[in-house]
Design brief:
By secondary structure, the chain is mainly α. It has helices at 33-57, 63-92, 96-99, 107-112, 126-150, 152-155, 160-191, 195-203, 208-211, 215-223, 237-257, 261-274, 279-291, 295-308, 315-323; strands at residues 7-8, 14-15, 27-29, 205-207. Residues 1-18 and 325-330 have low confidence and may be disordered.
């Protein structure tokens, strides 16, 4: 087995890969065969519904029955889709955002800002999830109004006026879904999409280089064992110690922001034990000690700070803490 030294971009130029992998696959799956089947059935039903609706408006015989039949088939497909999504999520113990393709967490903010596909995107970007959500929402409204029109007495439609109102709403929902598909879905998911993603609508897979453009997708592939990173170079003891010192400083800063000054002092002290000349850790320790009510200890650390690093940019601040109005507490 060997690691792959690089990857080719869409235009054939060599670019730096997200990571090196052990025996990476040439392609990764974007859609399962089951998803592709549902996609094409839904697309065929949409075409039948649009054509039969136009034919009914023109007075062609049998078009209303065809429209109703396609609508019922769409109802069953929508229910089946929801059940399958829930079943996959429960069986595979996967979070909802990876199954239902819905915008999740900060993805809503990215969607509102109309942010493009960033490097941190997962298999499905916020824009792709928003597209799916819009199609799902219009489909649900269209289905609900269609049920009311097909079985008005069972639903409890009060009269002819309400029935006409529902029919108008049903036509509006259908028009909204059609406009979204023609203006957003088809152009963005097909016409303007990279060729590899367009082909995925038929094959279900994309080249690994396309997945590597999205770090969230790569992390998911690694977690599932599809991609195996090559072992990293062993760090030297000094490098490990340097990383540990930075982590201790960051931990101390986080604890201080949370008001846990005593615990922050412990982290800063441990960083100084590993690297006694680390001026930033010493200054932060002095501030944390002061806020923890340990003025004499803070004063001692500030004096050491001034002695060891007299040209540090924080020297003036340290002197103000020693000599300023609050010196009685230092």
């Amino acid at each position: 087995m060997g690691g792959r030294p690089g990857a080719l971009s869409a235009d054939g130029s060599r670019r730096k890969p997200f990571m090196n992998w052990i025996s990476p696959p040439e392609t990764v799956r974007r859609f399962t065969p089951h998803q592709l089947l549902q996609h094409w059935i839904a697309g065929a039903l949409w075409v039948v519904l649009v054509v039969s609706s136009l034919a009914a408006g023109a007075g062609f015989a049998g078009s209303r029955s065809l429209h109703a039949t396609a609508g019922i088939a769409g109802l069953f497909l929508l229910g089946y889709h929801a059940i399958v999504l829930a079943a996959i999520g429960i069986r595979s113990d996967m979070p909802a955002e990876q199954i239902a393709f819905l915008p999740w967490g900060r993805e809503w903010a990215d969607l509102r800002r109309r942010k493009g596909i960033g490097a941190e995107a997962g298999k499905y970007s916020p824009a792709e999830k928003g597209d799916y959500l819009a199609i799902l929402a219009w489909s649900v409204l269209l289905t609900a109004s269609g049920i009311a029109l097909r079985w008005p007495s069972s639903i409890g439609v009060p009269g002819a006026s309400a029935y006409d109102w529902i029919r108008t709403a049903h036509a509006g929902f259908g028009a909204a879904l059609t406009v979204h598909l023609l203006v957003v879905h088809i152009p963005e998911r097909w016409r303007n999409a990279p060729g590899d993603l367009r082909r995925a609508i038929f094959t279900g897979t994309v080249p690994l280089r396309e997945a590597e453009r999205r770090k969230g997708w790569v992390r998911d592939l690694v977690a599932r064992g599809i991609l195996v990173p090559t072992p990293e170079t062993v760090e030297s003891a000094e490098e490990r110690e340097s990383v540990e010192v930075r982590e201790l400083l960051e931990r101390g800063n986080r604890l201080a922001r949370e008001g846990k000054f005593g615990e922050a002092c412990i982290s800063y002290g441990e960083a100084l034990r590993l690297l006694p000349d680390y001026s930033q850790a010493r200054f932060n320790l002095a501030v944390a000690l002061l806020r923890d009510g340990r003025g004499e200890e803070a004063r001692e650390q500030l004096m050491i700070f001034l002695e060891k690093d007299p040209f540090n940019p924080m020297v003036e601040k340290a002197r103000e803490m020693l000599d300023g109005p609050g010196k009685g507490s230092v």
